[in-house]
Amino acid sequence: MNLTDGYVAAAVENAPVKELFPGIRLRSLWTGDNGAKAHVLEMDPGTSWEGLDVHEPGPEEVFVVSGTFNDGARDYPAGTFIHAPAGSSHIPQTTTGCTLFVFYPEG
Fold first, then answer.
1. Residues with Cβ < 8 Å from 5, sequence gap 6 or more?
2. 3-state class of 2 per DSSP?
3. Strand partners, 86
4. pLDDT higher than threshold 80 for residue 36
5. How distant is the alpha carbon of residue 83 from its chain centre?
6. Of the residues 44, 62, 65, 78, which has the maximum number of CB atoms within 10 A of its CB?
7. Which CATH class is domain 12-104?
8. What does the pLDDT read at residue 107?
9. Which InterPro entries match (predicted)?
10. What letter would DSSP give residue 12?
């Protein structure tokens, strides 16, 4: 919904859903004019990204909304903020299931 003052709002439950891998869903919330993007990523328990997730062309900002997220090396519980610089990589996975807010400031 576009508001008269330039704000843009999106409800997660109304956002289009794209299944990236079995049990891993992406809900696109917003795309900016400069290519910046905001998403919600839902991962079912016991799921893992297929292959390496490389952060290009820019960084990835993640906030763990619920559950426990694992980057292939460590666990991040709900309430954790993660900054992954451009060029870094990881293998997103979870044993418990998790919901993430993911922001790409440079697309």
1. none
2. strand
3. none
4. yes
5. 12
6. 62
7. mainly beta
8. 79
9. ChrR-like_cupin_dom, RmlC-like_jellyroll, RmlC_Cupin_sf
10. G
